[in-house]
Design a protein that fits this description.
Strand content: 15-25%
Order of helices and strands: EHEHEHEEHEEHEHHEHHHH
Helix content: 40-55%
Structural class: alpha/beta
Radius of gyration: 20 Å
Largest sheet: 9 strands, mixed
Number of strands: 9
Shape: globular
Number of helices: 11
């Protein structure tokens, strides 16, 4: 496929006019300019549209704006991926910023992967810092490190918010399940990409400044009852689809099995059912969930008592 740009910076947004300019200004300051900005407005009722249309007239880079009925971030992300003309997608939340050299550094890392090997890579992933310059989460075992997202989590136990660019072609193979209402953890998609064998090139280079706020897109899924379905889906994915990694981190799988019961009970209490296309299958998964059922029930009771 012929790409118009190396990067598509993709920003799903909903009523974030008060923070979106921060993301825009960081794009204006980029030292690398071979990119477009795709803004998917997920049904905003504030001044988002007027802001973006105004920036289209002044920016040195192309800006594409698309509005859709409110369908949550995952549907907006899929929409943006379908419109992208860049080889790599940089998913920049509407409340965050890129470092001045972020796109340049990503391009350098991507082009250092031999061209004949790039089809096996999902993208390049680096680090995030808070506005005070403190790195979020763990650094990687080495400054240049190739692994799948699942290996990174379970085998190497690297935690914390990470950021980079992803192959547009790969993302089109693995869309978010937007038929499911509400929050779906992004890691479900990254894990599916990993199970297909795609690696990331991880580098100890800062790409993103992470601005933490109570209503940020990055914070979605932190409240157990509001986002019970998404958190149940992540637990189901862990105990059913990720068992080959159990030997690296048994505790993580035991806790996921407890969360399967915890959030399943939240769903039942709210009158909802888990999606039938995500069954608890396999003897090992059933044993894990059965073993950890008391812990999951206790966590559910604790949640109820707190509210």
């Amino acid at each position: 496929m012929e790409w118009r740009h190396l990067f598509t910076v993709l920003t799903p947004t909903f009523n974030r006019a008060h923070t979106l300019e921060r993301a825009y200004r960081s794009l204006c300051e980029q030292t690398y300019q071979d990119f477009e900005w795709v803004v998917i407005d997920d049904g905003s009722t504030d001044q988002t549209r007027d802001l973006v249309l105004g920036w289209q007239q002044e920016a040195r880079f192309p800006i594409h704006y698309a509005w859709q009925e409110n369908r949550h971030k995952k549907a907006a992300f899929n929409h943006g991926v379908s419109l992208a003309h860049g080889e790599l997608i940089v998913a920049l939340d509407s409340d965050d910023t890129l470092g001045t050299n972020a796109l340049y550094d990503m391009a350098q890392v991507w082009h250092h992967i031999p061209e004949q090997e790039r089809d096996g890579f999902a993208g390049v992933t680096g680090l995030c810092v808070r506005p005070d310059g403190k790195v979020v989460g763990d650094m990687y075992p080495s400054d240049v490190f190739d692994a799948t997202a699942l290996d990174l989590t379970f085998r190497y136990d690297v935690r914390g918010e990470k950021f980079g660019c992803l192959s547009t072609a790969v993302l089109r193979q693995f869309p978010f399940p937007d038929q499911i209402d509400g929050f779906v953890p992004e890691s479900m998609v990254w894990r599916a990409i990993a199970r297909a064998g795609y690696k990331h090139r991880f580098v100890n280079t800062v790409f993103r400044v992470y601005h933490d706020s109570p209503d940020s897109l990055s914070m979605q899924g932190k409240t157990s009852q509001q986002h019970a379905l998404g958190l149940w889906l992540l637990a189901q994915d862990t105990v059913v689809e990720c068992l080959p990694w159990f030997r690296y981190s048994p505790k993580a799988f035991l806790m996921a099995a407890a969360r399967y019961t915890r959030f399943g009970l939240h769903l039942r209490a709210s009158g909802r059912r888990p999606p039938p296309q995500y069954p608890l299958k396999g003897m090992a998964a059933r044993l894990l969930v059965g073993l950890m059922w008391p812990a999951g029930a206790a966590l559910y009771i604790r949640d109820r008592l707190r509210t």
